[in-house]
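lol forgot to send this yesterday, sorry. struct tokens for the thing we talked abt
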């Protein structure tokens, strides 16, 4: 059974990023973003359960939108306004019907990186 998971690491503070709002959407054939769900990271920087699993998991193109600007504002990070990074979108494809797609975000107020984890 396929599944999608994520976690967020605060590389500015050197710890998991608790309280990051994340939107998951499927990208339609016209390129439109169709919101599926919104989740928030826990104290370990992860969601409490996989974001997609079971019948909800389908191959296709998806986008995770990480509300990283709000996270750093809530921690009184010194940000310019508008913030350099506010909402970080990661668009990716899932082609393996039984695959585990893990899409982590490592972020600071000025940079981010991602990769397909395991």
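and heres what i got for the seq, position by position
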């Amino acid at each position: 059974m396929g599944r999608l998971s994520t976690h967020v690491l605060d590389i500015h503070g050197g710890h998991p990023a608790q309280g990051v709002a994340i939107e998951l959407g499927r990208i339609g054939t016209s390129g439109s973003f169709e919101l599926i769900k919104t989740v928030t990271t826990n104290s370990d920087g992860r969601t409490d359960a996989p974001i997609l699993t079971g019948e909800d998991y389908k191959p296709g193109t998806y986008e995770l939108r990480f509300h990283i600007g709000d996270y750093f504002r809530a921690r009184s990070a010194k940000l310019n306004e508008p913030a350099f990074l506010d909402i970080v979108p990661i668009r990716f494809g899932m082609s393996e019907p039984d695959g585990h797609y893990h899409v982590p975000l490592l972020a600071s107020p000025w940079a981010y990186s991602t990769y397909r984890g395991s």
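The two ends are 15 Å apart (CA to CA). anyway ping me if u want another try
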